[in-house]
Input
Amino acid sequence: MSTPIVAPATLAHERVAEPQMRKAARCAMVILGAGGDLTRRKLMPALAHLACDGLLDPESIIIGGGRDNYTDDSFRAAMSDALKSSDEIKVTDGPELTRFLGMLRFVRGDLKSADTYKAVTQRVAEFEGEDDSEAGRLIYLAIPPSLYLDAARRASESGLVPRTVRDDKKWARIVIEKPFGRDLDSARALDKLLLSLFSEQQIYRIDHYLGKETVQNILVLRFANSIFEPVWNRNFVHHVQITAAETVGVEHRASYYEESGVIRDMFQNHLMQLLTLTAMEPPNAFDADAVRGEKAKVLGAIHPIAPEDADDMSVIGQYDAGEVNGEHVIAYRDEPGVAKDSRVPTYAAIRFTVDNWRWHGVPFFLRSGKRLAKHATEIAVQFKEPPHSLFRIRGGLPIERNVLVMRIQPDEGISLRFETKVPGVDVQMAPVRMVFNYADAYGQSTHPAYETLLLDCMLGDATLFARWDEVEASWRIIDPIIDGWKNPGLVKLPNYTSGTWGPSAADALMAKDGAAWREP
Ligand code: BG6
Output
């Protein structure tokens, strides 16, 4: 283990006083499926944050729609309770929050019935007023993916989301949560339907990883500094490891998870996005087309893994009972709603290569799992060893590679490991870590990923949203791997104890390239 050296925070503070420039104009946001978990846990804290930061127009309204037995007032009370139990927001009372709660409305109805959409549209029209004043409409589908097609069709037919070709002040946009389809064919069918109802500029495919501060910082680190880019390629990089480790299990989402498993749930979207941001070429501007264009090129260059190669290039796992954070936890197969013989993977590690000039021959190892030893998401760029070692290493240990770690969560920050001389008359080396920590540099005030993304939707900035060609390319990569793992005889599941770092086969996957997983 290397010794951390903490970077001073003063330089960062000198430049953060700029006021927030971007504010949303008056609009009506409609959350379809507002009684669900996503609204309580993510959307409401993010919207409350925006309102309390003065970034929402105070005349905007937020309409929840769904079958729940709420009136405007009881919806406000329920959302106020949700904010109190949220760990994503610190303001839980005061005049700003009261004003925010006053923006909330509720329309009760079955989301499969046309009448509900009519009632919601009516409520939005009342808000817009008889003079048809300028205001945007943001429709958020916080509903199970099986309802997307129907909801999108009804939102269009009722006039709730009229088709527009350009984003003027009377805009209408629709936000769709992942998973965007469950394979390439279903994703195509969904996209085809959406494009028959709306223009591409109206569709916002959300991947909340892209709203994380530290994920956006990958681009800043790479392209606002000149020292990293010259070494960011196959000449210097030995391999890249991307880890999204969770300690939580499947929670209350067994019916969804049994259908998706870790590859659809985490790889097709979040991990692929992290890979593209790490591997992309510099875009010529920080705008939606340029950034997404470069990301799509990376996906297009990823070497396809054929189904018959899946077991060579990837490892799957499922958690067994064990201990996490000092508490006994049950096996995946014993979770409520999970089949006793389920073969759904809760862990996967996959070795990708990117067939282009910059990355030829550099493996990108991606792993994600539930019930692992620690909650940590990071990207570690491991550099090649020096060609010749002049110095003795302390304790006769092997030389450690230089590693640049972009820590996405928790303890957001960046660290760099390098060798130093151990004080003394002998010349001996030992590795140290230089650490930049967001909280130390900028204080604790990180804001939820959804806050950035919801504001972007209201402003019409799609840079941090997935474009259709990215989604399509990503399914093209993932589908054959899922197919390859359909053969039930291949791996015995469950194959890792909860609270560990996953199946041992994942170590063997890396060892073939002379690499080993870091313990974040
Ligand atoms: C979601 C997945 O998209 O991301 C969940 O559906 C997962 O299974 C979650 O737990 C992880 O998000 P975060 O922000 O906690 O890393």
Notes: DSSP finds 15 helices and 19 strands in the chain.
